[in-house]
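Quick one, T. Sequence first:
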Amino acid sequence: MRRIWLRVALAAGAGLASLVVCSAVAVAILLLLSNAADWWYSIFGSPSYGPSPIFWVGLVILLIVAAAGLSLPALALGARGRHLRNTVVLPVLGFCTFMVFAVAVIVLPWGVLLALMAIVATPLTGSLFAIREDYRYTVALVEGPTLIGAGAIYGASLLATLVAMWLRSVEPGWLILPLVLPLIVASSSWVVLPAIVAALRPD
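Structure tokens:
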């Protein structure tokens, strides 16, 4: 029993570290976009104007850092070598999807729903695929509770969105609340989902 709790604590800590790293990367990407002279064209594209090479170099470096952070939960769950590299691909795609919708929410308010889904899907895919190679015959025992946990967190983030919008209607000064509160709720999945997989993973 003590071994299981240590395994769960390690996975949860790795998920928290991954969240901190990727949060810093997300802020850095937003700063990179806002400081670029051609940020509008970087987001929406233009046939006559495009982002500078410095923008792309910075973006690639930040994505590499994000990939390193996203590999931490997979490492804690036992993924190694080529399997680790393959496992990190889906979380990186999930993180990139989140960034796209986080920027698009400026003009598409409903994009926050997809952004929250991408946040929850990122640790979900990473955690499940981390154990698929070694426990491919018993992974179904882990998938059910993990998917239920992911669905519950996503539902809670949607509820937080409604509550935050209601609070903003009561107090118009809380303009950023509908974005921050759901993000906090959805981001808890980065700690909770790896911990669930670690607890249910066969020895």
